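Q: Entry one of two.
A:
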Amino acid sequence: MKNIGALAVIFAIVFFQSCGQKEDSCSLNSEILDQDLEIEILRLEKDFFEAKNAEDFEFLLEKYPEFTKNYLQADLYQSMDSLVADLVQIHQDSAMRVLNDSVHVEFADFSKVEEELENALKAVKYYFPQFEVPKVYTFVSGFNSDLVVTEDLIVIGLDYFLPASHSFQPDLPRYMADRYEKEYIVPMIVTAISSRFNQTDPKDNTLLAEMIYYGKAYHFTKAILPCTSDQFIIGYTPEQISESFANEEFIWAHFVENELLYETNPFEIRKYMGEAPFTDAISTVAPGRLGRWLGWNIVDDYVFNQEVSLPMLMANPDAEQIFRQSGYRPRPPA
């Protein structure tokens, strides 16, 4: 691997804003906001923790069939009685009740998230008229499930999104757990929704294809949430974003000099795309998932230079074409 030592030194000492960094332009389209679309987030954790007996749980399971099937995965149980028995046991657990109380205090007012999500779903519907708005629920999962997004429903496991200072925390590495804050909820949902529109070529298993896939996903999320900071879309701190832009030339040189774009070895691809506290192949102070970040820059350039609409971008499965027509060049340090 070439120039790793030099890159490590550069990442360690360079910290300033690059002139090429994305500028956040915040404007919500009035045509989008004026659409006749309203959502209601159903706080199912309240209903389930207020249930007193098996009959109460049976009623709730029948009342919310999508939730029962897709989130509680009723099909995995031998019978509904088995599922009910599990729910009774879980919701009588003292630790679970304390966790639910904490969620109730922290998320007593969920109106800001609800408004942000409603505006986001309006934007998705605006760009993709065929999009059917799913039902939205919250729940306390006991740290079993953070977020479920399907065509029919969205379930937010609120216990995952308690503040980092809270005594209850998910069993995740700190660099991942830091992304489970209230501000990340809607960007995470929108990025998950992007996958149903993000067309790919199943025969293309290169690093470039994966970079472009994530680049399209993040571009989609930013287009739907133009007033949301990049921090909450990609999950980098502001300092990591600044340093990455300041070192973009060196990051790109690493990919080019090591002929990585057409790499198909999944172990090599994971070094640049997978969850990690840092991208070790480049530097121990470079943030993880740098291939995703770089793919986002390439896709942004493609959309800008080719004047491509969001639906056209997402429908294009050709990662090579997107890369070639992007005219991508790394931004030099200021």
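Q: Entry two of two.
A:
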Amino acid sequence: MHVYILRRLILIIPVLLGLTVIVFLIMSLIPGDPALAILGSYATPENVAKLRADLGLDKSMVEQYWIWLTNMVQGDFGRSYSLNRPVLDEILERFGATLILAGTSLVLCTIFGLLTGVVSAVRQYGWADKTLTFAVLIGISIPSFWLGLLLMMFFAVELRWLPVSGMYAIYGGGDLPDLIRHLILPSVTLAVVATGIIARLTRSNMLEVLRQDFIRTARAKGLDENRVIYRHAFKAALVNVIPVIGVQAGFVLGGAVYIETVFQWPGIGRMLVNAISTRDILLVQGGVVLVAGSYVLFNLFADVIQHLLDPRVKA
């Protein structure tokens, strides 16, 4: 196991390096001059030239990338000009809110996705299977941002059961119950698509496992049906579902960008939207690298769990 984890950690290094190259190139290709965006009405040719020199924008792209990469490796992500504070401080402050939203959504989609897939497989072609399959297809097909607006309009505007947006109430609140009330709508919205994907894969893997000889043997021995399904069949099917859950963890984290915008959640996604609109390049680069790096780590964690469940799985 230690060798397996060490091998995967080594393989992550070129992935993260390639990730930084892609992020830097994409930001470099965005039209417009950051110096002009920063200076605004004070953008005289002299001021623009001086600011470009201060920001290192007068250097070649290779030099800019190397300076940014070496500083980032040392923990210096630069300074956000729009917020006038270190990029890393802003990212870490926002990342906590994003982890709360994405973590809750991941727990919801994992629990309901696995449960739905198992029930559909066990009740194959029954009314439960048809109903759940139809619901899953609807959930996968609906755009998340549109679903969020529908839920907001129904539960927040019409019924007034839940708050419209934000992480805490503007006046009062600030405690755990207040956080949970604000978390329900965005977390459910973010979890719907991932729930459908996990449910469909769980169903197909459960159906395949239930046809295996060891399941027939377990039933022939007179084992309780629930024990056969949940202790034997589900465990075997879970080996192939775990990697997809890891992928969905990255999807949920990335999907938080537009869900946070819809619900005005103060996380990384909302920060990135604001940073892009102000052309705060260092803030955008730092945020994207952190989100993408977290996606890579989620997949590593999923692979390790899969290897624990089935040591035959190779890197």
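A: Comment on entry two: The chain has two domains: 1-87, 95-208+240-309. The chain has twelve helices and two strands.
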